[in-house]
Amino acid sequence: MQLTVLGCRSGMPAGGSPSSGYLVDTGRTRLLLDCGPGIATALSAVDGPLDGVVITHLHIDHCYDLLPLGKALLKPMLRFPGAPEFGGECAPVPLLVPAGAKELFARWSQLFPIASMPVLNRAFEVAYDVREYAPGELFEFGDCAVELHELVHSAPNCGIRVTDGERTLAYTGDTGMTDALVKLAAHADVFLCEATLRATDTTGHGHLSAAEAGRVAAEAAVGELVLTHFASTEPDWLHGLLTDAGSEFDGPIRLAEAGKTLTC
Ligand SMILES: [Zn+2]
Q1: Which stretches make up the Metallo-beta-lactamase domain (predicted)?
Q2: Residue range 243-256: average pLDDT?
Q3: Domain limits of the chain?
Q4: Cβ atoms within 10 Å of 13's Cβ, excluding its own
Q5: Ligand 1 mean position, distance from CA 213 (Å)
Q6: Best CA proximity match to 16, nearest among 42, 45, 34, 44
Q7: Quick check: 34 pLDDT over 70?
Q8: The pTM is what?
Q9: Residues flanking ion ligand 1, Cβ below 5 Å
């Protein structure tokens, strides 16, 4: 199982990195986890079809590029006579989203209408097979089993646990501290954990510090901790996240880096 970091910034893109988006590839199955601003572009640089998209929560930095990605998936259906990339069909990609997303998509897809190419106004109907999930639900995509674990955030957010039968990746999306994190990450080979902050979140919004990420990694006995969702691009600040997490977790720790692929 390979994990490609497409973007790893909290909020809007910064320092040349898109917001949240991660591609999981088992060799048989390719899943996109989250789709923030910049991810449609980053994904376009990685060849291959998608077998599914899973969105942790409906904050803009985790889902904004679903519309341009959907329109990109529709590209074969457009008619540009003579151009080789056009004139085909589009197989809908399963899209798992939190409850309420379908209503949002219905409004969203009405924006920027193109009368001469009406299929482009139907990205969420044609490019995707949209399924609203409930916390605790299980799904299968190819050789991958996907579990959704409810965490705590200012919008409903489910962490994602993906296993291909041999290797397991756990990803938080956005969350504050909760016992559910340990269940999400339990014995995962790679724990891709948000570490937005260097101090404990006192705002109630729901984010982790790097030390808290390390504490969960230790309790869950994960194989490797990958910190992500950074609030700053400042190098010393980023290095400090490693120090903070390392004070709680003895195993290997690394920082997510846009464009980099790691083996789970
Ligand atoms: Zn969020």
Answers
A1: 18-229
A2: 98
A3: 2-263
A4: 18
A5: 16
A6: 42
A7: yes
A8: 0.95
A9: 59, 174
